[in-house]
Amino acid sequence: MNTQSRVTVLLGIAGLALATSAVIASQSATAKSAAGAAAKPAVVRKTVPPLPNVGFAPVRPMDVVRATYDFAAQHPEILNYVPCYCGCGSQGHKANENCFVARRDPRGNVLEWDTHGFGCAVCVDVAREAMQMYSSGADVRSIRAAIERKWTPGNAAGKTPTPLPPAKH
């Protein structure tokens, strides 16, 4: 066998080894991805009614208000542990989630909106900040701590009586 034939055979073997390694790596990544997907619970969006027409312009642009209402609907596990600072506790609100959602069914779907959030910049701003932190990967305890650091000074009298988030396991 001449030198050129040997090089061709060696290149063929190397190419085959490379292709085999790529297939094995791909199958391993797919298996890990499937295992990771199985470990995470499926996210099921909660159903919501249409937002009501409140008869006045909201305090923030409508796309911002709509996003905060949607976040409140989809993430009570966050906003139920985030205080509001506008004084809405006098209306019976316990947390920022109450500024947007009035009633849910047993599965957590929104049955009725609270329109308070349309007219209150504090409510919308607190929810929006919580939403941004959540989107960045922060957990509920970190979100609560950051909101309290920012909003409690100067607003403590208006803070809702919000329960603390559950302890980490």
Describe the structure using short key phrases.
169 residues; mainly alpha; 5 helices; 5% strand
Architecture blueprint of SSEs:
Elements: H1 3-39, H2 62-74, H3 76-79, E1 101-104, E2 110-113, H4 121-135, H5 140-151
Antiparallel strand pairs: 1-2
Helix pairs in contact: 2-4, 4-5
Description of the molecule:
The protein has five helices and two strands; from the N terminus they run H-H-H-E-E-H-H. The chain has 169 residues and is mainly alpha-helical. It has two domains: 1-40; 62-158, no CATH class. The chain has a two-stranded antiparallel ribbon with strand order 1-2. Helix 2 (62-74) crosses helix 4 (121-135) and helix 4 (121-135) packs antiparallel against helix 5. The radius of gyration is 26 Å and the shape is extended.
Task: Summarize the structure in short.
This protein has 169 residues and is mainly alpha-helical. It is 48% helix and 5% strand. The chain has five helices and two strands.
